[in-house]
Amino acid sequence: MAKNETDQNMTSEVDDIVEDEIGIEVLVGDAMADGDPETVLRIIDDLHYADVADLLERLSREERGQFIDVVRDQFDPEVLAELDDTVRDEVVGHLGVREVASALSELDSDDAVEVLEEMDEAQQRAVLDHIPDEERTLIEESLSYPDDSAGRLMQREIVTVPSHWNVGQCIDFVRRIAEEDEGRLPSVFYDIFAIDARHHPAGSIALSKLMSARRQVPVTEIMDEDMHEIDVYTDQEDVAFLFRQRDLVSAPVVDRNGRLVGAITIDDVVDVIHEEHEEDIMRMGGVIEDDLYEAAISTTRARFSWLSVNLLTAILASVVIGFFDATIEQIVALAVLMPIVASMGGNAGTQSLTVTVRALATKELTGSNAYRVISKEVIVGCFNGVIFAVLSGLVAWVWFESVELGAVIAAAMVINMIVAGFSGAAIPIVLDRMGIDPAIASTVVLTTMTDVIGFFAFLSLAALVLI
Amino acid sequence: MAKNETDQNMTSEVDDIVEDEIGIEVLVGDAMADGDPETVLRIIDDLHYADVADLLERLSREERGQFIDVVRDQFDPEVLAELDDTVRDEVVGHLGVREVASALSELDSDDAVEVLEEMDEAQQRAVLDHIPDEERTLIEESLSYPDDSAGRLMQREIVTVPSHWNVGQCIDFVRRIAEEDEGRLPSVFYDIFAIDARHHPAGSIALSKLMSARRQVPVTEIMDEDMHEIDVYTDQEDVAFLFRQRDLVSAPVVDRNGRLVGAITIDDVVDVIHEEHEEDIMRMGGVIEDDLYEAAISTTRARFSWLSVNLLTAILASVVIGFFDATIEQIVALAVLMPIVASMGGNAGTQSLTVTVRALATKELTGSNAYRVISKEVIVGCFNGVIFAVLSGLVAWVWFESVELGAVIAAAMVINMIVAGFSGAAIPIVLDRMGIDPAIASTVVLTTMTDVIGFFAFLSLAALVLI
Q1: Global pTM?
Q2: What domains appear along chain A, each with residue ranges and CATH number?
Q3: Degrees to nearest 5, angle at CA B117 with B113 and B123
Q4: A21-37, pLDDT tens digit by residue?
Q5: ipTM, two decimals
Q6: Smallest Cα distance from A372 to chain B, Å
């Protein structure tokens, strides 16, 4: 890889990365349009594999095909692991089974698994058949674990030493493997693991500790016995929580018999953290899955279900309004003002909901403080309810020159804001207890609640007081 | 630290962590109520510092004070760095200046800075005055860099070696520091840095590479020259992007003269990733900052500003409805149906907005694909617009027995869904170009748009066609 030429006159390297790519994408597109593969190869020669992946994602469908044909012989296997699923699917199709298999053989097993698990079964089988036996066995074992489990996330290449060794023996051992068979070492590692006779992990040894100790020190003296073994079936979300909670960089993975089978490293966990966050954000916005690179038609289909749920709840709110059509006919100002009450409730509720959903996701909210969180949100709802009752009451009074109308909207506002605070906190907690993902279902339940209560409180009070 | 006793009968370790804490919180609360400090100390003796921090967060205000008094003499400094800001403020107040200063002296400089930067100036000064000179100078230097910069994030304790050394010299050097003055080593490290005569970084040397090479190999042979130096003024968000993009575990930080001043490690970056995600989620939900541990009154104040912006936009929508009061008076069904159009637009727009805001945050959306993203969202808006036009048109037709009313709502629905798709993608992109955080401002602009257009399209078409 070429040394960054802007080194002396350093601006933010990140801006360079992003700006370079904008330029590069255009350059690559132009070069391909001109039928000039040499230029394309020269450009990508300097790029980090993650940047090649980004470049591929930004190219159009047709350009991607041309690009693959040009770089086929020099395709960096690492690029595959970095691609978005939709784009990777296309790239894999273009590369062909043989090329993909040989690319995957060069990757660490966890990266190979990441690519393979997204393929359909036939394609996965075809690719696996072209991967050398030894590597394939490791990959197939990982694939036998459930989706999103620690078994899928771990790499099989780890360094293990008997727990009765000393520091010098460990260092010599690592040097010998590095010389004899580098493929057995992970591409980077931060710990090695001491195991007992039954292949159970006895402790993890941070390389910085190994470095700092004299050769004759026994590993038992510098190893960390409290090393957070992860069961191979643990969900990746729990793995991420553990890493963050304990500031881990790597952790051993054990099978059901307690035998050490692999290790999970922080770089994979960072990806999991991103995935989980993405899921949360997307679901709260009513999107099932990030669909940035999907075609318009499949995006339409994916978003349809959420919108149709929303149509039903909107009709429900309309039915509530329908009860009061006679009242609205007499006082049309009610139709003008009613969205204010519903909308303020929806927004205040969304605030409570956001804080609560997030606290559930980070496990800051558990059984023991749920009551405290809900009551706080109710109190905040009261406070803001009173403030906005006064404000909206004044607006209604001045606008329609009716104190009574002002009083009605004020009363409805207080009611709806309290309901919003309560529901915003309680709905996600209840959904979570019921085993339903609070991020995906809370919003729709909440807005139904605040719309229905908002319209009903306002219109029924009006019917009582004003007519 | 005690070895986990559930080792043999291993369930998910994470469940253990969370469940333990629920139990522990109650146990600790009870023990304090009984005036039994020994039990409290015995319980927390087995806990990881991150769990002690969680425990503190879950205790009530009064219990926190009692707890600090009990553990004062055995207070683990690492706990401070793990606490939520609001809770930490309280704990720091309880501990007192001297205890806090002595705790901070024991932490790596980056963790000490994290605690200090949240204090007000007088308190910061007071604590700094009690920290030993050498450590204080390092901390003060870090604090002189802007908030959220790489300079605040980096740790000053790094291992540097001249680039003309060989592997054996490096290992001996690390061993010597470890024996003579362990405080000069970071508590864990993954790389050491080779520097030239001007103290500029020449390359980073992964410990796993150092381990695997023979003693006589020169470091220039195993060091990575393309090591992504980070300018000390780089924003932490860009640092996080760089780490994720390049799968980094640590990176050197250089000052404006290119001299190596520190290193950033992945554990700090994971915290930044969480912070940034939290900010995005909170802002999209109309919450300025996570306020889970804030008192109700300050939460009310913080959320008030967002709600008052929302009140203004809701009034704007009401004004639009007000233009058509005569029409509504004649056909009250319009008041019943109008929220459907507005709400569907709002939800479809939020879907587009969520995907776009997220793509901007992950830098997947840049100048070159903005146009493609917007046009795709418009097409999706068209498709879903037509589908929901038919559905809502049928509902209106059947409900109010009027084909014309059905046609009006259908037409308004198509218009509003297209506007929603366009605005959902375009608003965040435009805000981002203007240097405004798209996560915070997009939602309010979008819902104003879809409300106003939704009501206006529906009511004005009704006024034209039906009257």
Answers
A1: 0.80
A2: 13-148 (1.25.60.10), 160-284 (3.10.580.10), 296-466 (1.10.357.20)
A3: 110
A4: 456 777 888 888 888 88
A5: 0.80
A6: 9
